[in-house]
Amino acid sequence: MTSEENNIVVQPVDKAKIKQIIRVAIILGVITTCEFIIAFTLGSGSIKTSIFVLMTLVKAFYIVWEFMHLGHEVKGLKWMVIAPLVLALWLLVALLMEGSAIHDANFL
Amino acid sequence: MSSITATAKSDWTGGKSPFNVSYGKLMMWLFLLSDAFTFSAFLIAYGLVRFSADSWPIPEEVFNAIPFMHGVNAPLIFVGIMTFILILSSVTMVMAVDAGHRMDKKGVAKWMGWTIVGGAVFLGCQAWEWTHFIIGTGGGGASLTWNEYGPQSFAAFFFFITGFHGTHVLSGVIINYLVYYNTIRGVYEQRGHYDMVEKVGLYWHFIDLVWVFVFTFFYLV
After folding, report:
1. What angle do CA A67, B26, B100 make, to 5 degrees?
2. B98 near A17, Cβ under 8 Å?
3. Residues of the domain holding B174
4. What is the model's pLDDT at position B74?
5. pLDDT value at position B64?
């Protein structure tokens, strides 16, 4: 056991890998900064909301695909994680429609 | 023998992991998927209530204070700092996982340490944010039954969603600390791999991912 412990070889830093991590970090930082700027410059409306949702999805993609490494996993695992989320999407559409209907029934 | 090897071509006939990940990582992915549904349900319910309400508070006017600067109007600045802290702690976690792949014990310890610091600072910020929200600015503040800024359900959703997320951050910091402790003790070096760092890494990135959505739908939109 002791000889094994002493023989652990620390591999050198892969510069390309670190560069990719920093690249993703900068992308996340820049998008968040843009969100700030838009929050104060654009008047609220459906265009502003759409931009925010789009930027959120881009950030989510980079976190899941690069940081959580899902983009480099096998196809089956990717589908196992992504496919069930369609249920959440359905709930989103159903409940937001329901919410508007409640609003119209109460206030229109 | 040859007939067995000939028929055992499929990934699903046993002997290997079809998804090419360790058991623990696969189970972590499944747990995170179920956790994603819980957070989705929370945020979608928030959407339903917001869509059915006649008026809703403007986040910029509710969350406009920063520590040590009383009375200064700084909309969303503090929560922006919190967002950057969480993203940075996610980056340090990726660095820890990378160091683990290279069997670099010192590197793992260093980056795990920074990740724990980031998580702890985020929790501190959230405690301040909650305190400010509960005490309020002269209108009685906010609780589960009262909200000076607008509909009472806004406060209830704020407490439940950021509270549930904060509980995740707290447990994440504790689990990160345990892994950090084991790393320093050389448990993973002896084991020959740093798979535990990857598993807690997945959990930690998920916390960052949830915050990205909370930030957009609670503070920006």
Report:
1. 50
2. yes
3. 22-220
4. 78
5. 81
- List Cβ<8 Å contacts ≥24 apart for B181-184: B183/B105, B183/B108, B183/B109, B183/B112, B184/B109
User: What part of B 119-178 touches A (C-beta under 8 Å)?
Assistant: none
CATH of the domain at B74: 1.20.120.80
28-57 in chain A: CB under 8 A from chain B? 28-29, 32, 35-36, 39-40, 48-49, 52-53, 55-56
B112 within a domain of the structure (yes/no): yes
ipTM, 2 decimals? 0.91
Average pLDDT over residues B1-29: 76
Nearest to B44 among A13, A64, A92 (CB): A92
What pTM was estimated for this model as a whole?
0.91
| pLDDT of A4 strictly over 80 | no
B188 within a domain of the structure (yes/no): yes
Is there a contact between A74 and B20 if contact means CB atoms under 8 Å apart?
yes
| B1 found inside a domain | no
**B29 in contact with A, Cβ within 8 Å:** yes
